[in-house]
Sequence to fold (226 residues):
Amino acid sequence: EIVLTQFPDFQSATPKEKVTITCRASQNIGTSLHWYQQKPDQSPKLLIKYASQSISGVPSRFSGSGSGTEFTLTISGLEAEDAAAYYCHQTSIFHTFGQGTKLEIK
Amino acid sequence: EVQLLESGGGLVQPGGSLRLSCAASGFTFTSYAMSWVRQAPGKGLEWVSSITASGADTFSADSLKGRFTLSRDNSKNTLHLQLNSLRAEDTAIYYCAKVEFSGSGSLDVWGQGTTVTVSS
Fold:
């Protein structure tokens, strides 16, 4: 089973700040890595697919990069509405999710 | 509008069974794989099971030890997840999600979830 480990588990940041969340895979998954945002009491929402492909309707401040075993989600110019949990998800071999990163806006 | 509507959740005793359903609308159901993902209270997302567009192949998390069975009725645009031998640790919100392709890929549409509580 492919294990995804996210860093950090929790992050607190201020508006307009740039935030980076890392996802590390236990083996090479190419670019079969996706990112989701989940706000409290809501369903998850797809933010980035295949490591760096943008999703229609998602603000351009969200971007992704990486390949192989190391991936990052970057939020440039943090806004209050970005307070949420963020999850990475691999589909190279079946499916697994990272444990999540909770982002707090000060 | 693309929509997924889950149903069938509820309170069940340990060892019991439930059948979850997911009604899909707004897209060509027969062209896309589908998945179930669950989230225990206060915890992260856990993949449960996926099924290809045709229904010919299903895949499930090893941790479930064969207790859950996924199927689809392409004539009714509906997905079903049969949960057997339920345990307290199966308590969670169960989300139905559309896969972006007929086989595997990102989960581009999610339902609102249905809650399963396993307790005596």
Q: What stands out?
A: Chain A touches chain B through 22 residues (CB under 8 Å). The mean pLDDT of chain A is 97. The longest strand of chain A covers residues 19-25. The two ends of chain A are 37 Å apart (CA to CA).
